[in-house]
Amino acid sequence: MEVKEEQSTKRKKQKQGRFWTWVAASVLFRLILIYFPKNLNLSSRPEVSTPLTSLRRLAEGYWLKQSSMSPYAGSMYHGSPLLLSLLGPLTIKRIEGQPSHLLCSLVFVVADILNAMLIRATGQTLQVAYRQSLKSLDLDTISESMEVLSSGDVAALVYLWNPFTIVACVGLSTSPIENLAIILALYGACKRMVPLAAFGWVMATHLSLYPMILIIPIILLLGYGPDTPRKLLLMRRYGKVEDNSSSDSFQQQDKVINQSDLPKVFAWRPTMLFLLWVIMWSVYVLLLCGISVKQYGGLWEMFERMYGFILTVQDLSPNIGVLWYFFAEVFDFFRNFFLIVFHMNILFMIFPLAIRLKHRPCFLAFVYITISSMLKSYPSVGDSALYFGLLGWFVNELSEMQFSFCLFSVYVGVSLLSPVMHNLWIWRGTGNANFYFATAITYACLQMVLVVESVSAMLNHDRKLKKLTNAKLQNGKS
Amino acid sequence: MALPLLLLRPILLLSFLLFAPILNFKAALGSVTEEDFSEELLLRPLPDRKVLAHFHFRSRAPHTSSNGRHHHLFPKAISQLVQKFRVKEMELSFTQGRWNYDRWGGFDPISSNNAKPPGVELWAVFDVPLEQVDDSWKNLTHALSGLFCASVNFLESSTTYSAPEWGYRPAPGSLRYGTLPREAVCTENLTPWLKLLPCRDKAGLSALMDRPSIYKGFYHSQQLRLTSSELESEEGGSGIVLQQTLTVVVQPDSERNVMSYSHETKLQPSWSLTSIFGRMVTGRCVLAKSSTVYLQLDRGLVGQLDYLQKENELSSDDKSVYEGFSSNPGFELSVKPDRVLKELNDFEKKNPSVVYEFYIEKYSESRPFDLGLTWKLPVVWSCQKAPLHAVRFLMGSGNERGAIAISLRSTEVSDELLQTDMSEGRCKLEVKVFQVVPWYIKVYFHTLRVYVNEQPQEVSDVVEKMRVSPSVDKVSPGVMEMVLKFPCGMKSAAITLEFDKGFLHIDEYPPDANQGFDIPAAIISFPNFHTSMQFFTDKSVDRSSILSKFQENSAVLAYTEVLLVPLTTPDFSMPYNVITITCTVCALYFGSLLNVLRKRVGEEERSSKRKATKETGRLRQLLSRVSAKLRGRPSHQPTSNSSTFISSKLILFILMAGIAVFWQVYFG
Question: So where does this one cross the membrane (chain A) (predicted)?
Answer without folding.
Answer: 19-36, 164-187, 199-224, 272-293, 305-327, 333-355, 362-381, 401-421, 433-452
